[in-house]
Amino acid sequence: MTHMPDDAPPPVQCAAGGADDPLSSQWEESIPEWIAALSPGLPAADAATVAKEWTACAVDLARQVISFVPNASRGQPCRLLCQATGKAVPATYTLTSNLRTLCVEGEAPHDRLGEVHECQLADMRNIWVCADSALARRVHGSIHSDLDADLACVVLIDVPSGPLGLVMRSSEAREEFLDCMAVLIAFQRLRTDPGLPRCALPGGLPPPEARLRPFGRSLQSEHLSGPICVWLARVGEDVLTNWAQEAATSPPLPLESLESSSPDPPKKSEDGASAVHDQPSRPTRASASPI
Question: What is the DSSP string of 79-109?
């Protein structure tokens, strides 16, 4: 792996589609609309290169979501972390048909409480992992057996009702969960309260730099706010809208509404510092270092 300074992480290596790839073509046709929101002030000479990198990531993410949503809707095995008992009990997480809620249910007789945990995607602000979250490590440490809760497979979902700890079946499954949940959360947040995730409320903070979640790290609110939220929602728009329409529970979110909702370029703070780096914004997914 190439080592680069912290302020210039390498771009993610995504498998871009070919010229005949419909997913790639969809993004190529719309480069002028969305690249300006992701990279305000981007020199014209760099626009094509930066847009191609973001397009590659969009195609790769869209493919993941297309695979993830049907599987998650049928239910996927996991373990539910219970700090009270110090156990990680077998469970299943499921996406509701309208893709608005993640339900987690422990399997009998392992889960004596028999409670179904329901988490609204629009309310999720962070999904922590142990690599960069002391809280996630503390929850993991409360489990008596590491065999039931592999450190590299733990996620801690930050929701208003309290953090919910899950153990995925593998570290690869955890990464897929985080990447696809980013798209799903962004999609639902824009439906629920468009001004908040776009950082477009009067008197609010400027939007953060458009930055993807680094590989192996937590999905944080900064990865779901500002221009990147609009970009993520658009990545999964076709599959998520079609799925919602089939469920006949929610109206589609038109592409035009996403493009027109792109926020203005980040404003400078009172001390004159820009809210983004001087270098063009690129999709960055630096690998996490071992704990």
Answer: EEEETTTTEEEEEEEEE-TTS-EEEEEEPTT
